[in-house]
Every structure is written in C-alpha cells, then in structure tokens.
Automatic annotation (TrEMBL):
Protein name per Swiss-Prot or TrEMBL: Germ cell-specific gene 1-like protein
Origin species: Seriola lalandi dorsalis
Protein family per UniProt: Belongs to the GSG1 family.
Subcellular location as annotated: Membrane
Alphabetized Gene3D superfamilies for the sequence: 1.20.140.150
GO cellular component annotations of the record: plasma membrane
TM segment ranges: 12-32, 155-183, 203-227
Length: 306
C-alpha cells in the first residue's frame, strides 16, 4: 500500500503517541505480574461476632486468658491457610491486607535479591531513557509537521526522530527483559514472607511490550519515509543531470535553441519513460519511437536542423 508523505508522517506520529501512552501507563502501574500467596490465617482479635470471619482463626472461647478452659479451633488442613492476591510493578509490590480489605504495598527493591538490586536500578534507568527518547522522537515528529521549515530541515528532523524512536525501542526492550529476570529471581530467592504460590504476567506487562511494538513501528515508518524522500531526490537529480548532459551535447554539435525547446516539450511526464529527441526539428506524434543520428552532423558544417 503506497502512502503519501503526509500520511506516512501522520502514521509515524500516531504510533509514537500510542507507544508513549502505553509505556507511561505500564511504568506508573503495579500490574506487571500478579498472583496469589499461601499464608497461614492469623488469629482473630476483638469481640466475637455472629458472622464467621473466614480470613482469620477464632478460638471456641473468647476468654483466652482463662487457663481452665480448653481452647480449640474448628479449622483443619487447608482451612488454616489463606490465598492472598498480590500484584507487582517496577516500583512497588502490593498484597491484600490481613482483613482482605485493600492492599498493603512495599518497595519492590526490598523484595528483589540483594545482589540483583543494581540490575533493578539499571532497569529503572532504562525505562526512564525509553520514555525520554520516545517523547523526544514524538516532539521532533510534531515539529516536522510545522509548515515553517524547509524541506531539508524537515528531512533532518525526520532522521533524528527516527533515530530517537529506534533507540528508545531498544532501551525499552532491555528494560522489560531486565525486569522479567529480576522478578523471576525474586520468586525463587526473595523473602519467605513474599514468595508467591502462583503468578503470571498481567496487563501492565502486556502494555509495556505493546508499547515496544508500536514504538518500533513508528521508527520504521519514519525511517522509511526519510529513505524514500532521499531516493526521490537522488532520482530527480539524476534526471536533471542527464538533461543537462544532453543540452551540453546539443550545444557542442551547434544545435539551435529551438531544438532544445522542442526537446523539453517532447519529454514525457512519466519519469520511467526514456528521454527522446525530435528528428529534423519536428516533434513526432505521441508514442512514436525516433532516434537522432548525430554521426553525420559534423560533416554538414554549414547546415543546422530547423
């Protein structure tokens, strides 16, 4: 599908904005991974209630300090354990509270293995570079749409925008892979009070990789537009140089100016068609193939084609 220059620029800019929105949403949320933790139910506190509290264990008697009473619980086996939900991001890891209402969050750097915390900080730096370069590329693409710049300046802006967007995609890919590695190490070597029973990647993780995909799509579109424009410029320059060489050849052979003017009017509009010359000063009909024989021209010194 062939797109015009303006459409390509708009497509690259749209993909850039989508990638930036996805990346910003992924980094600022804590749903990269989610799962459950198996923990023992705590003992219930406070006065007894009529409704059974399923998230804690209550003794048969509320008078716990009375040593003459036999204290026992009704929960057995798996009933003594509770599955708490948790979700984790780059900055924080949140787990359901003891009463199962709300979430308690703590810094993910406290959960990551101590010898891998440097990699976590590199991941944060890479994500910051990803957002910064992606925003810079979008800003350059927006400036490129401004009509106050010349064509060459727009080409330079397009090249820098494609470069910034491609570099941001590489930084994002490295950052996402580093977080994946750190989280898996935390699952295997993290603190006992955090290790999950089950876990999987969540919607923030999908947004992060979706942002990477749209970012690279924006970079490829911008680079393709820049490359196509450069090729068109080179092709037009080659045609101009070819026309000038033909004119110089005519001047060397003492052709009158009328022949050059008729040649210009006879040049087809299709850029792919071969360049043609009039024969004997007359423009042939459209579609007629003709050749100018220049070998005999020097022999006719006093004559010229009219």
């Amino acid at each position: 599908m062939r797109l015009e220059h303006g459409h390509r620029a708009s497509l690259a800019l749209t993909l850039n904005f989508v990638a930036f929105a996805f990346a910003l949403s992924a980094v600022t949320t804590n749903y990269w991974c989610e799962g459950t933790r198996k923990v023992a139910k705590p003992f219930c506190t406070g006065p007894p209630v009529k409704v059974k509290q399923w998230f804690c264990i209550r003794f048969n008697s509320s008078n716990i300090n009375d040593t003459r009473l036999v204290q026992y619980i009704f929960e057995t086996g798996e009933e003594k354990f509770l599955l708490r939900k948790f979700h984790t991001g780059i900055f924080f890891s949140c787990e359901q509270a003891v009463d199962m209402n709300g979430f308690d969050c703590r810094d993910f750097s406290e959960i990551a293995p101590e010898h891998e915390r440097g990699v976590l900080w590199l991941c944060i730096v890479a994500e910051s570079l990803y957002l910064t370069l992606l925003f810079t590329g979008g800003a350059l693409m927006t400036l490129e749409q401004c009509p106050c710049f010349s064509i060459m300046n727009k080409l330079k802006l397009s090249a820098f925008a494609a470069l910034c967007t491609a570099l941001s995609g590489l930084c994002g890919m490295v950052a996402h892979m580093m977080f994946t590695t750190i989280f898996q190490l935390a699952v295997a070597m993290g603190p006992e009070d955090w290790r999950p029973k089950t876990w999987d990647y969540s919607w923030s993780y999908v947004l992060a990789w979706g942002s990477f995909g749209t970012c690279m799509g924006s970079a490829v579109t911008a680079l393709n537009r820049y490359t196509k424009t450069i090729i068109e410029f080179k092709y037009k320059r080659r045609n101009i140089e070819k026309s000038l060489m033909i004119k110089q050849k005519m001047m060397e052979l003492d052709f009158p100016e009328q022949v050059w003017d008729m040649y210009l009017t006879a040049v087809p509009t299709d850029a792919e068609a071969p360049l043609e010359l009039p024969v004997n000063g007359h423009k042939p009909s459209t579609g007629t193939t003709y050749v100018v024989e220049m070998d005999n021209v020097p022999e006719q010194q006093g004559e010229a084609y009219c």
